[in-house]
Write a structure and sequence with these properties.
203 residues, 3 helices
């Protein structure tokens, strides 16, 4: 029976490497367990310290409440022991002043009737003005009417311009379709052109 020494050596090397890996794994596992133990110990210490602080605060709060309760009755007793000031006597009512008796007014003599004035003659009515004044008033009224009409036309023109501006803003914002915008714009332009003709004729 023959043995292959090379093959046996290779198997031994494989077994040795496996044993090394097992030992390394065990070492890592021990380190991990040790770290967990340290973490657990630190957590317990932190929790114990926090619980101790909370217990101390509760104890301090209880003592303060007991001191406050002991101070309140003594304060109330001291307040009750202080004598109240004696009530001041009410002032005696003073007699109401009697109204002074005024002497009765002496009777006055009745006034004499005033003399009625004589009627003053009214001035004679002035004759109406000459017809020339009426013609001058009529000639003055005509320019004023024209100026009023011109002002009215200018106001209408400004109003149409404002409407045209609003229409363009509405179209830019997409509030009205393009066909409706073009129709209204043409209508307003025609009205503005007609107003310009009337204003030019009055000027």
């Amino acid at each position: 029976m023959s043995f292959d020494i090379g093959e046996i050596l290779e198997k031994l090397k494989a077994i040795e490497s496996f044993a090394n890996k097992v030992a390394e794994t065990k070492k890592l596992a021990d380190q991990l367990a040790e770290n967990f133990a340290k973490i657990k110990l630190e957590i317990n210490e932190i929790l114990n310290a926090r619980f101790t602080d909370i217990a101390n605060q509760i104890d301090t709060l209880r003592k303060n409440m007991e001191q406050m309760e002991s101070v309140q009755p003594s304060g109330s007793s001291a307040a009750s022991s202080t004598p109240e000031p004696a009530a001041q006597p009410a002032p005696a009512p003073q007699p109401a002043p009697q109204p002074a008796h005024e002497p009765a007014p002496a009777p006055q003599p009745a006034p004499e009737p005033a003399a009625t004035p004589e009627p003053i003659p009214e001035p004679a009515a002035t004759p109406p003005a000459a017809p020339a004044v009426e013609t001058s008033v009529a000639t003055e009224a005509a320019p004023s009417a024209e100026s009023d009409q011109l002002d009215f036309l200018i106001q209408q023109k400004d109003r149409l311009k404002a409407q045209l501006t609003d229409l363009r803003f509405d179209y830019m914002r997409g509030y009205i379709p393009e066909e409706e915008y073009k129709a209204k714009e043409a209508e307003l332009d025609a009205q503005l052109e007609e107003l310009d003709k009337q204003i030019a004729a009055l000027k």
